[in-house]
Design goal:
Largest sheet of chain A: 6 strands, mixed
CATH superfamily of chain B: CheA-289, Domain 4
Number of helices of chain A: 28
Largest sheet of chain B: 5 strands, mixed
Distance between the termini of chain A: 87 Å
Helix content of chain B: 10-25%
Largest interface: A-B, 25 and 23 residues
Radius of gyration of chain A: 39 Å
Number of strands of chain B: 10
CATH topology of chain B: OB fold (Dihydrolipoamide Acetyltransferase, E2P)
Number of helices of chain B: 3
CATH architecture of the largest domain in chain A: 2-Layer Sandwich
CATH topology of the largest domain in chain A: Heat Shock Protein 90
Strand order of the largest sheet of chain A: 12-16-17-15-14-13
Number of domains of chain B: 1
Shape of chain B: globular
Radius of gyration of chain B: 15 Å
Number of domains of chain A: 6
CATH class of the largest domain in chain A: Alpha Beta
Strand order of the largest sheet of chain B: 8-1-2-10-9
Oligomer: heterodimer
CATH architecture of chain B: Beta Barrel
Chain lengths: 868, 152
């Protein structure tokens, strides 16, 4: 390709990237003159260069765009999103022409009259509400032949039709003559203009030109080959050092030392040339977010942190596309629509945050949004529907595991396919790409609070630290990145390899790790004679999977220069490359991801065996709604053990019986700075020794249940076989082969603390508060009862008399309970339980002065209402 | 009339020829590292003056029986470039350079084995034996297809 053209293409592509970002910034800060000037200058440069090397299409678009931008700059036009979109559209057109230019070296056929007309219309104020009067067209001196429809105007001076956006010479001259003379500043003597240049406020430009002088453009190929040669140099040096180690001849020692030092420095410098700030991969993102938010009618802010974080340009290239995809995903699925956000009590504007930082030889990139978070149930059902997992598996998975299913191939949760994302290629492609460069990806999601993706990638791909391991006669390199620790196992060692159904596992601290032999992974012939020798186990972590790799020997760690595999071998997932060791031999670099794949099968079978319990639970859950319940067994009076669901118990305490005090309301104990009422769960409360107590709490109410002894915790299918024989017992179930009374915890607790049940309502914000209508003509009782009932967790509506109550009911108000004076009975209210109250002690009605009786009555009424 | 120079070499009992322009060097493969799980045609990888070279076992590629252990000492490799990568083709013996006229090359006999007819450009009748001109691109590329087929 023509040198001039290729230079132009590189330069223009860079400028366009800058323009994209700047325009988006400009749109939000229209008053920022510096940004606008920068955009204007860049577009102007593109136009100028196009004219210079003869690219008419590009030139005319750039020209029209420049005109519009000029109007912005002069303040003649307000900056509107539509106008900015138009400029962005013309940038896109320029890009597509450039792409064609790069491929074919000529401008594509066709014209851009549509776009230019739009741009011209906009610059004449066609798009804005406050349009300035259109400029008067200069008189055309020569009568031109009628131009064909759609063609530019005829220019007599040039003897051809004007190109779109071009101005005829005559117009130009007329405009020139109309313009006032040059401003006096240009007429100043040269010395003065130099002085004024130095005094110019635009320091940015100065800084840039200073930088410009100290940087040069270097072809990437040159850098690549430089890197290759330095890698060779490093290897050669390593070889020399190894030779020297065995020789006593010190003649070479000093020069070699020097060579070694220089090589290391050179390596570092060359590595530096390959480093680029990650910000350069983010340049396109503001534009993408802007366009996406326009398309989706959302308001999204993109916050970028750590743009200056540097990483190898090879890695940078590879991470660009996955990042773009993830940002799109966050726009589409992460951030909610404006309505949803407002409904959730969030601000209109969603925020997507991109953050990069270094951590121990890696770069971490976080993409987080403050959207709705992942929808666990939707992912679960989608995964089942797509056959990624089955129902039994899904029941045994934690939320985090379910969330990770979005990385599974062929998975896309978007309910509707938009043009932003959801085209079938989803997060699995992102994951594959990240893994391809030795990275990992993980996510955190909180329902209602957003999702964060964390990508961890190595700083560079060229030189990595690797552990050299040996199996039989083979040696392999394992990237240190995924090695957690080394364990020796065998007869003489603390650890040993155990078998579950001929699958090897290792007990390591609290974990049972699946093991796989490298020789099996690679189908190596194993010498059976050495079967019971001790083995080295390399504990590795790949993504979420942790496993042990059995090898014969572990040599040392070495900085290795990764060489790509021949295409022929590249298709093998087990290897990620090859390298030359210090001794000159070639060894293969194992790909932890590839190895883990062969482990996955092993792990699954191990898990099958290990998770007998959860699998049974899952199967049971799938079969029926029968659940295993953890039950607390205790002795409390009688010969039979009693039990209650463990999940209800807040704490188990063993109190000193002498601290239990008797009050008029029953036994209480000082517990955590307050009085806790106690109830006996069948037996009696001790007066000396120790008293085991089950502590229950609901909201602010804490109640203790005194038992004789705490026996056990069992997990059983709760199958209550006999109905209740006595109050406080739900029924009898067989637990651990013994018939056990399942107690009604509520019964005992309400005995000790009557506000228990209402506290239950209060403490549960999700439960609909029951609506109570209080009809009370007497202001004294009205003021006494309304706050009391309300404090117990009910939604109280007060009516001063029957008329008002009927009016409210007629207006469509519904209530669960109606409290009314026994002297003014109200006729049947649909769906509500009517409780008559009395200010006298009366057998029929509930006394108004008895708070507990009243709340109890409401409780009972509600229960019978639900039963009805 | 155009005369070309061919380097001759022996694989098994057959004499082959490759144009001198296609051969980078001839070397004795040392410290070859086998690649487990790879296609049997891949003899391994080795370090040739700082470059990692993929060695192709020509016998295996041509469907010939593997070399006996005793012959191993004699093995040589021809260094070639293919698709920007370095390969070493392990052969049994290197021969002379011969000058041959393009016009004298004869087409593959129709009954030639399929694998062979792909890698053979044509045949020369030398004085006492036949010389098969090898298509090195097919020889190297074809092995990859074999790999894919084996994987499938």
């Amino acid at each position: 390709m023509d040198d001039l053209l290729s230079e132009f293409l590189t330069e223009t592509a860079e400028s366009l990237d800058v323009i994209d970002t700047e325009l988006v910034r400009f749109e939000s800060q229209p008053e920022d003159k510096a940004t606008l000037n920068n955009i204007f200058r860049l577009v102007h440069t593109i136009k100028g260069t196009c004219g210079f090397i003869g690219l008419p299409r590009l030139e005319s678009i750039a020209h029209a765009g420049e005109t519009l931008l000029g109007k912005f700059r002069d303040g003649a036009l307000p900056v509107t999103p539509d106008a900015v979109s138009l400029v962005l559209a013309s940038i896109d057109r320029i890009k597509s022409i450039l792409a064609h230019l790069a491929a074919e070296q000529v401008e594509p056929p066709g014209d851009d009259r549509d776009l230019i007309a739009e741009l011209e219309r906009a610059s004449e104020g066609g798009l804005s509400a406050v349009a300035p009067p259109p400029p008067k067209p200069a008189p055309v001196t020569v009568v031109a032949p009628e131009p064909p429809e759609g063609e530019g105007r005829w220019d007599a001076d040039q003897g051809r039709f004007l190109r779109p956006g071009e101005v005829s010479l005559a117009d130009l001259e007329a405009a020139f003559n109309d313009t006032e003379g040059p401003p006096p500043v240009e007429a100043k003597p040269a010395a003065a203009s130099v002085a004024s240049f130095a005094a110019m406020p635009d320091h940015e430009d100065e800084k840039k030109s200073a930088v410009g002088a100290s940087t040069i453009r270097v072809n990437v190929d040159v850098l690549e080959s430089l890197m290759t040669m330095v890698s060779e140099l490093v290897l050669t040096r390593n070889q020399l050092l190894q030779i020297l180690r065995h020789s006593t001849d010190s003649e070479f020692k000093a020069p070699l030392q020097r060579l070694s030092g220089v090589t290391a420095e050179l390596q570092e410098c060359v590595m530096k040339t390959r480093m680029q700030p990650i910000g350069s991969a983010w340049k396109k993102l503001p534009r993408i977010v802007r366009d996406a938010s326009n398309d989706l009618h959302k308001k999204i802010d993109l916050v970028m942190e750590g743009e200056a974080t540097e990483l190898d340009r090879q890695v940078l290239e590879l991470i660009k596309d996955p990042l773009t995809h993830m940002i799109r995903n966050s726009c589409d699925h992460g951030v909610e629509t404006i309505e949803q956000r407002l409904a959730a009590g969030k601000s209109e504007n969603g925020t997507i945050k991109l953050r990069a930082y270094h951590q121990g030889g890696h770069i971490l990139i976080e993409v987080s949004d403050d959207g709705a978070g992942l929808h666990t149930d939707r992912i679960r059902s989608k995964a089942i529907e797509k056959g990624v997992i089955d129902i039994a598996e899904s029941m045994a998975m934690t939320d985090a595991q379910i969330h990770r299913l979005i990385f599974a191939p062929g998975f896309s949760t978007a309910a509707k396919v938009t043009n932003i994302s959801g085209r079938g290629v989803g997060m699995d492609v992102v994951k594959t790409n990240v893994e391809l460069i030795g990275g990992t990806i993980d996510l955190r999601s909180r329902h209602g609070h957003g999702t964060t993706f964390i990508i961890k990638i190595p700083l560079t791909l060229a030189i990595i630290s690797a552990l050299i391991v040996g199996v039989e006669d083979h040696r392999f390199a394992l990237p240190q990145l995924s090695v957690l620790e080394l364990v020796r196992a065998g007869k003489r060692f603390e650890h040993k390899i155990e078998l579950i159904n001929s699958t090897r596992v290792l007990r390591l601290r609290d974990h049972l790790l699946p093991l796989v032999a490298l020789s099996d992974c690679l189908n190596l012939m194993v010498d059976e004679d050495r079967g019971d020798r001790s083995a080295c186990i390399v504990i590795m972590q790949v993504g979420e999977l942790r496993f042990g790799l059995i090898v014969d020997e572990v040599f040392d760690t070495e900085e290795i220069v990764v060489k790509p595999l021949a295409k022929r071998l590249g298709a093998m997932s087990e290897y990620s490359g090859a390298t030359i060791l210090g001794d000159g031999s070639v060894i293969m670099i194992l790909d932890p991801n590839g190895v883990s794949r062969s482990v996955a099968n092993v792990e699954r079978s191990v898990n099958r065996l290990l998770d007998e319990q959860s699998r049974a639970a899952a199967a049971a859950a799938a079969k029926a709604s029968q659940h295993k319940v953890s039950l607390l067994l205790f002795a409390a009076g009688g010969s039979e053990p009693r039990a209650c669901p463990l999940s209800l118990v807040t704490r188990l305490e063993d109190l000193d019986a002498s601290t239990i005090e008797m009050t008029s309301r029953g036994p209480v104990v000082q517990y955590r700075g307050r009085l806790m009422p106690l109830a006996p769960a069948g037996g009696s409360i001790r007066h000396e020794g120790r008293q085991p107590v089950l502590v229950f709490s609901q909201g602010s109410v804490v109640v203790g249940l005194a038992v004789d002894a705490i026996l056990d915790i069992v997990e059983e299918n709760l199958d209550i076989q006999l109905g209740a024989q006595s109050p406080g017992v739900l029924g009898t179930a067989v637990l651990k082969g013994k018939s056990t009374e399942i107690i009604d915890v509520g019964h005992f607790l309400t005995q000790a603390e009557p506000s228990w049940a209402s506290a239950a309502i209060e403490s549960d914000p999700r439960a609909n508060r029951k609506r109570v209508l209080l009809i009370e003509s007497h202001p004294f009782f009205r003021n006494l009862l309304a706050p009391m009932v309300s404090a117990a967790g009910y939604d109280v509506t007060v009516a001063e008399g029957l008329e008002e109550a009927r009016a409210r009911l007629a207006a469509g108000a519904t209530f669960d309970v109606v409290l009314t004076d026994a002297d003014s009975p109200i006729e049947n209210v649909a769906g509500a339980q009517v409780i008559p109250l009395s200010s006298r002690r009366d057998a029929e009605a509930v006394p108004k002065s008895d708070r507990y009786a009243l709340l109890d009555a409401i409780q009972r009424a509600l229960r019978s209402g639900e039963a009805a | 009339m155009s005369i070309r120079e061919y380097v001759t070499f022996r694989i098994g009992e057959q004499l082959f020829g490759l144009s001198v322009t296609e051969i980078h060097d001839v070397f004795r493969p040392a410290r070859m590292t086998p690649v487990p799980l790879s296609n049997p045609e891949i003899a391994g990888v080795l370090n040739l003056r700082g470059r990692i070279v993929t060695a192709i076992d020509a016998r295996s590629r041509l469907g010939l029986p593997a070399r006996g252990k005793t012959d191993n000492v004699q093995s040589l490799a021809i260094g070639v470039e293919h698709g920007g990568e370095s390969f070493g083709m392990v052969i049994d013996e290197i021969g002379d350079v011969v000058r041959l006229d393009d016009a004298e090359m004869e087409q593959n006999p129709v009954n030639l084995d399929a694998t062979w007819s792909v890698v053979s450009r044509g045949v020369y009748r030398l004085d006492n034996r036949l010389l098969v001109i090898m298509d090195i691109d097919q020889m190297l590329a074809g092995a990859g297809q074999g790999n894919a087929a084996a994987a499938a």
